[in-house]
Amino acid sequence: MKRAAAKKKKHQPVLAKQKVAARVARTPRVTDPRARPPRKALPRRIAKGEIGPYALEVLSRLKREYPDARTELDYETPLQLLVATILSAQCTDKRVNMVTPLLFQTFPTAASLADAPPEKVEEIIKSTGFFRNKTKSLIGLGKALVERHNGEVPDSMDALVKLPGVGRKTANVVLGNAFKKNVGIVVDTHVARVGHRLSLTRETDPVKIEQGLMPLFPREDWALLAHLLIFHGRRVCEARRPKCEICVLNDVCPSSTI
């Protein structure tokens, strides 16, 4: 009896050590709160007196590099572009272009869109994501256009942003492309990212980014500028790894790794 108790007692320290080791293995390591990861370096600032000529040089080079820069959404009328732009939220232009032919054929006018059965619209646009909210926006858009604008898409910023599902970015897309009016600059994720890397802006709010970019570029190029930055962001200045080695701006870009 005493021998069994002694044997059990003899193994207790070993078991205790094993339990402690197991707890340590399961417990996440607590790092020193003072040991913060290094901050990602911001692009160097362009001197105030140099920012104007620098911005025009960026514009000139991107124009030469992307002479065919344009919206990659397929459309024929302002209404089609407005609908396609609403669908492009959190979705690729390629996917939107796959669903809009049937949507435009089924609901060709604002009036037909206003009277559309929600389930039918949802079925057509489902693959674009957030299809229920987008369906509400599209049907609401159709009704608002019929009630306020005789079924036509208005060509002013004030009128556009009052429509369901339409913000400033969407309005800029329609005005700059369907109506050829340079009222502002479209700011999407590509424009914001490339703008930061080029040190054209340090703002994070899209409206502030737009307000900062407009004075740097000729008004007649505002719509084109967005297309150029989007083309560049999709093809070269990618989010995860910019291809600085083939970038036409690598000798002037403050973020260049070359």
Question: If you had to describe this structure to a student in words, what would you say it looks like?
Answer:
It is a single chain. The N and C termini lie far apart (78 Å). It is elongated and about 55 Å long. Helices cover 55% and strands 0% of the residues. By secondary structure, it is mainly alpha-helical.
Q: Largest beta sheet, briefly?
A: none
H/E series: HHHHHHHHHHHH
Q: How many individual helices?
A: 12
What's the rounded overall pLDDT mean? 89
In terms of DSSP E residues, the strand content is under 5%
Present the secondary structure layout.
Elements: H1 2-26, H2 51-65, H3 78-87, H4 93-106, H5 110-114, H6 118-125, H7 131-149, H8 157-160, H9 168-177, H10 189-197, H11 206-213, H12 222-235
Helix pairs in contact: 3-9, 6-7, 10-12
Task: Jot down its keywords.
single chain; 258 residues; mainly alpha; 12 helices; elongated
